[in-house]
Give the backbone structure.
Amino acid sequence: MSMRIGYGFDSHAFKPGVPLIIGGLPIEHTEGLAGHSDGDVLLHAITDALLGAVSAGDIGTFFPPSDPRWKGAASHIFLQTALEEVATAGFKIVNVDTVLVLAKPKIVPIAGELRERVAELLGVKPGEVGIKAKTPEGLNQDHVAVAHATVLLESVRLTDAPVQMVATADVDDEINEVVKGLVGEGSRDVSALGRKRPAFDTDDLT
Ligand SMILES: [Zn+2]
């Protein structure tokens, strides 16, 4: 079983007159986060961590700020795309850990709710998500929200494949050969980035 690690970072300035959304959760506060999308600093950092873990570029690769389609977009759309990239590459999430750095609002009272919301969006258990919050002591960044995220991925064991047909197979390579036979050799090409191309048309999933 192979594992991958990914790291993501993001920051957004606070701005009056916009709703505050962190981790997909609307939060009561006097200001929100400025950005081309909804400014969800936490989901952006997690999205970059997931994409980085499978060498699939970053959030700007998929959703350039110059594209008007993403103006005011809900950031779980970005996260969903990253999750599809992870699945396509043959991996799943082991756990996600994050740090939020912001002066206000206080995260502790909503940390449990935030963790559950992020877990729901990631399709994992709340116990597989870490949310930690710090105030930016000595950084002179009281009007900025910063997020760091780390993800650990593991390769998906093909337990649903007819592994019993190759009961002697004790290495992933042999299982992969069976899968190639099932889905067709040509459809499992590896991209220049070393990622497996999708064996299905992702548009069909929407
Ligand atoms: Zn961002």
Residues 10, 12, 35, 41, 44 surround zinc ion (CB under 6 Å). Strands lie at 3-16, 20-22, 25-27, 31-33, 91-101, 129-134, 144-155. Residues 183-194, 196-206 have pLDDT under 50 and may be disordered.
